[in-house]
Amino acid sequence: MKATLWLALAALLPLAAAASGWTEAERTTLASLHIGKLPATPADASNAVEASPEAAALGKRLFFDTRLSANGRVACASCHAPERGFQDGRPLGQGLATGSRRTMPIAAASHGRWFFWDGRKDSLWSQALGPLEDGAEHGANRVQLVRLLAGGYRRDYEAVFGPLPALAGLPAAASPLGTPAEREAWTRLPAAQQDAVNRAFANLGKAIAAYERGLMPGETRLDRYIAGDASALSAQEVRGLRLFIGKAQCVSCHAGPLLSDQHFHNTGVAPRNPLQPDRGRAPAVARAQADPFNCLGPFSDTPPGGCAELSFIATDDERMEGAFKTPGLRNVAERAPFMHAGQIATLEDVVVHYVAAPDAAVGRSELARADRRRAERRPIALNAAEAADLVALLRALSGPICERGKPC
């Protein structure tokens, strides 16, 4: 299906390009941005049930269940709301308390290699576990969640993963990451019981990931334009597209069909708290390596010899200081405010930031003008009309979010 779409797209591109005066190099770049160029979802060997419809159905129920929280009022969907494009529109995530970063969108998250703004998780299922025990998000604990699986999901869980651990002897609440009382209760559990609880906890995340894996962005007006419909974009939006792949250098990081290179960059975004600037990716590398639920951990399904990215991750890359993951730009106009902690209110202000290229509060911005000989990009110079054109293009990147197996 994808191959047929791509052949049709390749045939149409020259016609649309000729009508609009795109060069051959520009046509190649435009083609790379089309949603039809998105490859099949990469397999995650650490999650043996990621492609299971039964696991996805279970994960969907869990995703919307507010009982996966300490107060019974916070679900995954509380921050990743379908009606808001699976995000929340807040500058900072809001669960039991206010978080320190913005909620990331999850459509096509399965195409990433590292998760969260800082990449501290190395799989979609491990990412799903983090908020569940975070005191500012769900605030739940492992034993509580296993009890929920046993009481509300036993048949569906065991059909996918096999028997749940026995609950006899388990306290009402216990976790190595919880309150002092929960941590103390956890230490009193025998190692075998801890392992059984951890495995069920990991499986909960794998089921949620199986559901999230089926959430993908749909076609936008940009895609229709690239495919040959010259009327899909206005003249101003076409001018913005020329800037996007050219003078404005957006495509340097916002590349490919998801409009993200999936890497980490420091672009000098001001911290919310100047006294405690967020170091981003730099400290997250050690967290990913130490995580018991990572690709190399005992709860991963990866066969021996896998996990190359985690095994060979760079631990001393100075460029990761203050760096954050490049968000995809599909549906970006629906996701104000912007940046990793909602520091910038509007798309217009985002463009102003990149033109201004301020120095970073921590680490070194790739855009910084202070030492242009070391900077990774040339300065971005846009006048007011060009900035407006670029924003117009960004507003043309909205489209539906599609769930596998349903019309979109």
From TrEMBL:
Residues 54-216, 235-398 form the Cytochrome c domain. Its EC number is 1.11.1.5. Keywords: Heme, Iron, Metal-binding, Oxidoreductase, Periplasm, Peroxidase, Signal. InterPro entries: Cyt_c-like_dom, Cyt_c-like_dom_sf, Cytochrome_c_Peroxidase/MauG, Di-haem_cyt_c_peroxidsae, MauG/Cytc_peroxidase. GO terms for molecular function: cytochrome-c peroxidase activity. It is found in: Periplasm. It is an enzyme of class 1 (oxidoreductase). The keyword Metal-binding applies. Residues 1-19 form the signal peptide. This is Cytochrome c peroxidase. It comes from Roseateles saccharophilus (Pseudomonas saccharophila). The lineage of its organism: Bacteria, Pseudomonadati, Pseudomonadota, Betaproteobacteria, Burkholderiales.
